[in-house]
């Protein structure tokens, strides 16, 4: 079968636009190269070896399908024809680059080899042909280094050491100062390193070099760092990586050659201008590795105006073609520009929104497309990132300034090692990873850190690109500091910062400060408000917030809440003056004692509800009756028990005895939820009174109130009826006493499988359902919410579960109960209002599921509201308006 399979595709072959199958087959880079050829950009010729070939290789014990070798040879002949040069021919040599390219962009993850095809004979030919011996030997020594490092696993450091020695010997400080003689000697010394470390001679045959390189790319798909990156980013179900073989063009030929990377717009704030950097007389890896500090692209306008204009024209064409900002790699060879690759540009949340708005206003895309394609829920999440607070105290001491590589503020203890960062994270500590520069091996530690600080590297260095993609604050290229890994410290003049010391970094300004600076929430700009207006026009499901306090409610409104979907009343009890009252209620022996203690709580609860109703001003507010097991309000430590017993005026012995009596093996399945209000009806009565007195009094002030009283953890309809009757009785008393009434709704949470299974009979009595998916997940999977850590991490890394069910709804199990309960509830009562208020209400995947089940609203924490609004707009547009989208 493989015989007839086409594994090799020329860039110049016709690839139909936006064809996902071709992207899956050719990888993102390969598909883009092909598309770029199609729109007339100056792309060096080449071909792509498909992801299917990689899958075959990894599935068949590192062997190639029969047809592959011949197809690669044909590909090389095609490139030879296009370039008018020959692979391995010393008189007229063709050199190629070999790069990986998976379907999904994985910056820095896979390996690249440049200058392949060079050997002792070819280097001489190259020197003659280009009339530049220095350039030829520089290319050769770079190739031996890369080939050794990437393909044979000889650490780059060994070559680097030899290079440093050579520079010292030559009395120069930079690579470009080495002359052809030095480089020639360097080639011999690199070869000796290669031979010593691998035990083999350096391969002279270009085809042999090519086979090694292709295999190395195939293998790197399953390398530890690539697998880790895919796991962190949840990249799954891909075949493998494609391999792109492309004619080399040279940015290091002379001073009218250069290499660079640029974004078509500013990826930090989205503003309209080419953004990036370039290096004269250098190759691509010098820019990406951040080992030499490049010039900003603006300077290209002055130094090479004609090239700059061409770049501007080509990048605009790319943006129009892909309907997105592009991250473009280019090379200028002796005054001629080549576009090497393009991909969709990683950007900050702030930039994503500005770009989406500008694209719509520039007429490039429709609003619908901007909402669906240009802004991801995670971008909005980033907008909520913390900033440093402006304090009245003494200003922070700035210990260094670098590039503002990824915005947001972060505070943590310094670690210099990525593994240590991961360990600290697992212990629950906040750390800042400080490195000279980062590499793909560091991604786990970067992910575990609050922020990243590097002393070297530009805006497109590894640290900067990865951090921006994750929305993690990053300061890169902070040359003010000198890092000493051995001594586990960094210095700036007299200042020394050691491992474990607190620092604060500001990825928006590039500043590094000592100590632990206070953080605040960010604000939104005009682009955000306009974009979110479009988002709100595009969705058909409501969003509410889980908000327990006035401050939460204010934040919720600011972030777009249309009501409160869950006010957890117990959170109001933890203030010092209230906790004693609830504790007194808990230790009561009689109903009269309990009522008396509760009476003390009533004014507090009522005042809280009044504040919330007032600020919500006519929007629905769902208040849940007391839910948690009562032991959560009691002390556990001996010292505390003594202190609380004094507070309550009882002996410590008696309090201990009471605590002992309340102890449950699994309190989450014990005396909690509606079971509290049933055994101690005084609680329900007091809370009903607090809610409704607040509501009636506000209504008398002409403020519209829409209270919804929610009974937690119902399993049997009889439990609900019991509580509903209590609420109604108390409500009628209050309405009678006050001489006026308010409209109330009485509903329940569905968070026990039995409630979901008997939804029809519960719906007969309830005005609304709200899925408590936290408890519903706990009770359906029989996983305790509080101690899954012991096995869940293992389950996820070993593929027993694909997602944490407490974060992403388990569609097959918990989801099935939701579908059933929603359907049967609505069948019984078509006007039944149904929402969800578990953590899943702020998760984009789960939101999609709730939309598919026709729920009326999702309720989530205020900070996740913008994300939920966007996710709802996207799912609705994708379902209804895709056809209409331009
Ligand atoms: C739930 O169980 O999903 C819920 C929202 O309630 P809590 O998290 O307070 O138990
Ligand atoms: Mg619950």
Structure in words:
By secondary structure, this protein is of the alpha/beta class. Helix content is 47%, strand content 17%. The strands form 7 sheets. It has an 8-stranded mixed sheet. The longest helix is centred in the last third of the chain and has 26 residues, at 591-616. The two termini are 40 Å apart. The structure holds phosphoenolpyruvate and magnesium ion (MG). Magnesium ion (MG) binds at residues 751, 772, 774-775.
Protein topology:
Layout: E1 8-10, H1 20-38, E2 46-49, H2 51-59, H3 68-83, E3 86-87, E4 93-94, E5 96-102, E6 112-116, H4 120-130, H5 133-151, H6 156-170, H7 180-198, H8 206-220, H9 224-232, E7 241-247, E8 258-263, E9 275-280, H10 284-288, E10 295-296, H11 298-303, H12 305-322, E11 326-333, E12 336-344, H13 349-361, H14 367-374, H15 377-383, E13 387-388, E14 398-401, E15 403-406, E16 409-415, H16 418-426, E17 431-435, H17 443-448, E18 451-454, H18 462-470, E19 474-476, E20 482-484, E21 489-492, E22 495-498, E23 502-506, E24 511-514, E25 519-520, H19 526-538, E26 542-546, H20 550-558, E27 564-568, H21 576-587, H22 591-616, E28 620-624, H23 638-648, H24 652-662, H25 674-679, H26 681-700, E29 706-711, H27 717-738, E30 745-750, H28 753-757, H29 759-765, E31 768-771, H30 773-781, H31 789-797, H32 814-828, E32 833-836, H33 844-852, E33 857-860, H34 865-880
Helix pairs in contact: 4-5, 5-7, 6-7, 13-14, 13-15, 13-19, 15-34, 19-34, 20-22, 21-22, 22-26, 23-24, 26-27, 29-32, 33-34
Bound molecules: phosphoenolpyruvate (PEP) and magnesium ion.
Phosphoenolpyruvate binds at residues 566, 568, 627, 751, 772-775, 837-838.
């Amino acid at each position: 079968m493989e015989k007839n399979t086409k594994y090799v595709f020329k860039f110049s072959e016709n690839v139909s636009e936006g064809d996902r199958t071709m992207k899956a087959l050719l990888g993102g880079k390969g598909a883009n190269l092909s598309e770029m050829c199609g729109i007339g950009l100056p792309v060096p010729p080449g071909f792509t070896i498909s992801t299917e070939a990689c899958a075959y290789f990894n599935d068949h014990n590192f062997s190639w399908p029969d047809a592959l070798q011949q197809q690669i040879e044909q590909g090389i002949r095609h490139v030879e024809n296009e370039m008018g040069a020959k692979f391995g021919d010393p008189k007229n040599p063709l050199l190629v680059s070999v790069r990986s390219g998976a379907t999904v962009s994985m910056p820095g993850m896979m390996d690249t080899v440049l200058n392949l095809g060079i050997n002792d004979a070819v280097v001489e030919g190259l020197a003659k042909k280009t009339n530049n011996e220095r350039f030829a030997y520089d290319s050769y020594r770079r190739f031996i280094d890369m080939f050794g490092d990437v393909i044979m696993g000889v650490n780059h450091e060994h070559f680097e050491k030899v290079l440093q020695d050579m520079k010292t010997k030559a009395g120069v400080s930079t690579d470009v100062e080495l002359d052809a003689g030095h480089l020639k000697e360097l080639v011999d010394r690199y070869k000796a390193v290669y031979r010593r470390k691998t035990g083999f001679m350096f391969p002279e045959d270009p085809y042999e070099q090519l086979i090694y390189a292709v295999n190395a790319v195939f293998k790197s798909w399953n390398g530890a760092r690539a697998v880790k990156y895919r796991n962190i980013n949840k990249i799954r179900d891909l075949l493998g990586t494609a391999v792109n073989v492309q004619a080399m063009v040279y940015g290091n030929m002379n001073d009218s050659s250069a290499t660079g990377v640029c974004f078509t717009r500013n990826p930090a704030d989205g503003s309209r201008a080419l953004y990036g950097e370039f290096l004269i007389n250098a190759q691509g890896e010098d820019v990406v590795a951040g080992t030499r500090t490049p010039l900003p692209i603006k300077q290209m306008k002055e130094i090479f105006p004609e090239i700059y204009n061409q770049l501007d024209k080509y990048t605009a064409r790319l943006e129009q073609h892909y309907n997105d900002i592009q991250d473009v790699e280019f090379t200028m060879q002796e005054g001629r520009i080549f576009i090497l690759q393009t991909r969709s540009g990683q950007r900050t949340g702030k930039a994503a929104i500005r770009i989406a708005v500008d694209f719509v206003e520039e007429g490039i895309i429709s609003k619908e497309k901007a909402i669906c394609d240009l802004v991801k829920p995670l971008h909005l999440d980033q907008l909520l990132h913390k900033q440093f607070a402006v304090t009245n105290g003494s200003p922070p001491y700035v210990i260094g300034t670098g590039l503002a590589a990824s915005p947001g503020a972060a505070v943590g203890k310094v670690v210099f090692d990525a593994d240590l960062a991961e360990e600290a994270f697992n212990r629950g500590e906040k750390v800042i990873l400080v490195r000279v520069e980062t590499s793909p091996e560091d991604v786990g530690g970067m992910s575990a850190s609050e922020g990243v600080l590097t002393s070297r590297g530009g805006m497109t260095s590894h640290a900067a690109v990865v951090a921006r993609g994750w929305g993690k604050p990053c300061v890169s290229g902070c040359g003010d500091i000198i890092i000493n890994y051995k001594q586990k410290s960094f210095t700036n003049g007299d200042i020394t910062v050691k491992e474990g010391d607190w620092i604060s970094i500001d990825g928006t300004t590039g500043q590094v400060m000592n100590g632990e600076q206070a953080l605040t929430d960010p604000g939104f700009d005009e682009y955000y408000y306009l974009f979110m207006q479009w988002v709100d026009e595009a969705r058909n499901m409501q969003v509410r917030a889980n908000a327990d306090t006035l401050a939460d409610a204010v934040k919720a409104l600011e972030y777009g809440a249309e009501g409160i979907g869950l006010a957890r009343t117990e959170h109001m009890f933890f203030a010092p003056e209230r906790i004693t009252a609830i504790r007194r209620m808990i230790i009561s022996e009689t109903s009269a004692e309990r009522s008396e203690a509760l009476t003390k709580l009533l004014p507090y609860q009522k005042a809280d509800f009044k504040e919330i109703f007032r600020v919500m001003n006519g929007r629905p507010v769902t208040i849940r009756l007391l839910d948690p097991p009562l032991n959560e309000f009691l002390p556990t430590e001996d010292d505390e028990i003594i202190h609380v017993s004094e507070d309550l005026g009882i002996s410590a012995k008696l309090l201990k005895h009471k605590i002992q009596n309340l102890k449950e093996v699994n309190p989450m399945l014990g005396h909690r939820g509606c079971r509290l209000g049933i055994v101690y009806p005084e609680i329900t009565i007091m809370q009903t009174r607090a809610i409704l007195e607040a509501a009636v009094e506000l209504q008398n002030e002409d403020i519209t109130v829409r209270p919804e009283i929610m009974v937690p953890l119902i399993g049997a309809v009889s439990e609900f009826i019991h509580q509903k009757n209590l609420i109604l009785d108390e409500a009628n008393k209050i309405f009678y006493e006050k001489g006026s009434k308010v409209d109330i709704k009485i509903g329940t949470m569905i968070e026990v499988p039995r409630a979901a299974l008997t939804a029809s009979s519960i719906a007969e009595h309830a005005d609304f359902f709200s899925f408590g998916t936290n408890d519903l997940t706990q009770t359906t999977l029989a996983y305790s919410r509080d101690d899954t850590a012991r096995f869940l991490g293992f389950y996820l890394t070993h593929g027993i579960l694909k997602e944490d069910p407490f974060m992403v709804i388990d569609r097959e199990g918990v989801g099935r109960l939701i579908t059933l309960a929603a359907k049967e509830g609505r069948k019984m009562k078509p006007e039944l209002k149904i929402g969800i208020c578990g953590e899943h209400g702020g998760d984009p995947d789960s939101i999609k599921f709730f939309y598919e089940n026709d729920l009326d609203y999702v309720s989530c924490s205020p900070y996740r509201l913008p994300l939920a609004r966007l996710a709802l707009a996207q799912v609705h547009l994708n379902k209804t308006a895709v056809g209409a989208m331009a």
